[in-house]
Every structure is written in C-alpha cells, then in structure tokens.
Amino acid sequence: LLEQVEGCSLIAQKPGRNLLYHSDLEALHSDDFSVSHKLHAYLLTDSLLLTLPQRKRNKSNFNASSSSSMSIKRNDVNSGLLSPPGLTNNYLYKFHAFYELQEIKIINIEDSKEVRNTFQLYKFPECIAFRCANAHIKKEWLENIDNAKKQLKLSGE
To answer: pTM surpassing 0.85?
Structure first.
C-alpha cells in the first residue's frame, strides 16, 4: 500500500492491519446508477480504503540535461533522501476515503436490467454504490467484507 497509494502511510502502519482483498470498482450515482468515477478499493482487516487512480509517471521522464547536472549519491536516492525529477510521486492511486468496517453496512443490490454486479456501502449520511467488473468479483467483495466483519466481532474490536 505504501508504494501504491499516495497519502496512506498512517493507515497502512497500524499494527495488525493487513490487506485482505482489492480490486478496481466503479462508484455510481445513487439516483440513476450511472458511473460517477473509477476507483480502486482495498479491504483491510478492519477497514475499507478507497483510492482514485492517477497517472503513473514514467521513471525516465526527466530530461538528460537536468539529470546530468545533478550530483546525487546513489545511496541518497535509494534511501529516499533525494529523488531526481521524475522519480517522485510514482503512485498508482491517491487516497480518497477511509471507512472503519464496524461503522459501515454493506448491502447487496440484486441484478436487474439497469444494475448489475453492484453493492452499496452505507455510513450515515453517506450511501455509495459500487459496480464490480463481474459477478465473481462482486461475490468476492461481499464474502470478504462479511468475513472481515465477523473476525472483528470475534476479536472484540
């Protein structure tokens, strides 16, 4: 997560928090179920992290003149102390929203002519509908969220 998602360092560093499942989803408008935006969701042991895709920068995007005039030690670049232009911000996703599993309710939306492979997240006053790429991914999301919530109850968190 730290390497893929910009702005999630505090979230990813909680002891015992592990990644259980992730995939691309489409957030839908609740009134007509049209696509609002694409996102990538990460189910963690105790939470759900929503991220927005961002264009990954090409590591060789900086020009030769700026790189040849820079004097950077290899160890400084590798340790993250310094980064040449074009090597910073190589994240695939940017933090969008974070929900504790205990505070949300997930509702399966039955398939119809207008809506397929969709489920909703409720956290008062928010309601967000997500469309999955296919029925298998939807099933995986629903099962994994349900299992994670059960594990949280068993652990007493």
So the answer is: no
